[in-house]
Amino acid sequence: MAARSVVALVSVAEVVAGDLADHLERRGHDVRQARQPWEAESLLSAGGIDVVVVGDDVTQAEGRELLKRYGGEGGADFILICRPRDLVDKVLALELGAADVVESPLNVRELAARIGGLLMRRGRNTQELIVLENATVDLRSAMVMHRSGAEDQLSPGQVALLRLFLASPRKVLTRDDIIAAAPAENADAFDRSIDSRIVRLRRKLDTETITTIRGAGYRFDPPRSD
After folding, report:
1. How far, in Å, CA of 34 to CA of 44, rounded?
2. What are phi and psi of 5, to 5 degrees?
3. d(CA 94, CA 77)
4. Which CATH class is domain 130-220?
5. What is the pLDDT of residue 3?
6. pLDDT at 145 exceeding the cut of 90
7. Distance between CA atoms of 219 and 89, rounded to whole angstroms?
């Protein structure tokens, strides 16, 4: 199993840090936090950090100093949070090699997506994303991210069922196919329970891509990309 990616949060506002850490940890990342720049020195000097998020509770000079010491080639990717209209500080950070600079107040989900993009470029992304009509599914973390911003957790049985459909697009799967390849999570799952499993999965995914073929079974029709 590949090592988990590590994200360090340095002097990030407490409410943002809590929400961001929860968001990242549920997606399989390790999160470490340092409240003060001097605590960050010990954390970052130990190595093993993939992405560092520096909050705007530190001065821009302190953030740039951390970037110069621990970023760059072979180091962590840095995201600096700055206050609006700090254009000069933003440009300086980017010129020093910051991977990204974002303004506060910020959206935690957007920041998490930016972190995910950096991890992907480092070859450390642990996501396996499936895009449906109204939601995106991360199969590895079993998370459903709705366009509304709400999130749902898939059960192991639902992940197995969705993987089965993804492996057989536009193919009719019989009830026997489903029972054999994606058994339910308890001993009460007989033929008549398949309908309810499909209904629950459709509802959680908010999708119409799984179609009931009367008298035959079920078919997954991937949504169009246009």
Report:
1. 10
2. -70, 155
3. 12
4. mainly alpha
5. 66
6. no
7. 54
What pLDDT does residue 211 have? 93
Look up residue 33 and give its two tokens: 């936090």
**What's the one-letter identity of residue 174?**
T
> Which amino acid is residue 42, in one-letter code?
S
In which residue ranges of the chain is CATH 1.10.10.10 found? 130-220
Report pTM: 0.65
Helix H segments across the chain? 14-25, 37-45, 60-70, 87-95, 108-121, 156-167, 175-181, 193-205
CATH 3.40.50.2300 fits 6-126, yes or no: yes
Residues carrying CATH 3.40.50.2300, the chain: 6-126
Distance, CA of 145 to CA of 137 (rounded, Å): 6
Q: Which amino acid is at 142?
A: A
**In the structure encoding, which two tokens stand for residue 222, read together?**
């991937």
